[in-house]
Write a structure and sequence with these properties.
The chain is an alpha+beta fold and 117 residues long. The strands form 2 sheets. A 3-stranded antiparallel sheet has the order 2-1-3. β1 and β2 form a beta hairpin.
Length: 117
């Protein structure tokens, strides 16, 4: 008995048929690096192309941080990952003067720090 090999992108095609939004990878012509993901309304399903189901967008993570000399010194020495872990331990109560926003899909990305007045 011969084994039937599934078509390239079979799982993604099935997800598309069920209503999922599909994206195709766009690579740099010279560098070959991934530049972006383009939404595909009507995918061509090119065998050598890279497709994915569009990831769900998660809400940004917001933390309110009290400002003191201790916090200021910790901010100057912390990496984004250390800062994120430190902020997760803080309460969500907005009693602070700094609003720190991290990307919901990638919490290691610091999006903004703003003063709350």
């Amino acid at each position: 008995m011969t084994e039937t090999k599934p078509r390239a992108h079979a799982d993604i095609i099935k997800a598309w048929a069920d209503g999922a939004t599909i994206e195709r990878a766009v690579y740099g012509a010279i560098s070959g690096e991934l530049l972006k993901w383009e939404e595909q309304k009507h995918p061509y399903w090119i065998k050598d192309a890279t497709y994915r189901v569009k990831p769900e967008t998660k809400p940004d993570i917001i933390r309110y941080v009290p400002v003191s000399s201790k916090v200021s010194s910790e901010f100057s020495y912390a990496s984004v990952n250390d800062l994120y872990k430190w902020l997760l331990d803080l309460e969500d109560t907005p009693t602070s003067v700094l609003k720190v926003t991290f990307c919901g899909n990638n919490p290691s990305i610091l999006k903004s720090v703003e003063e709350v007045k």
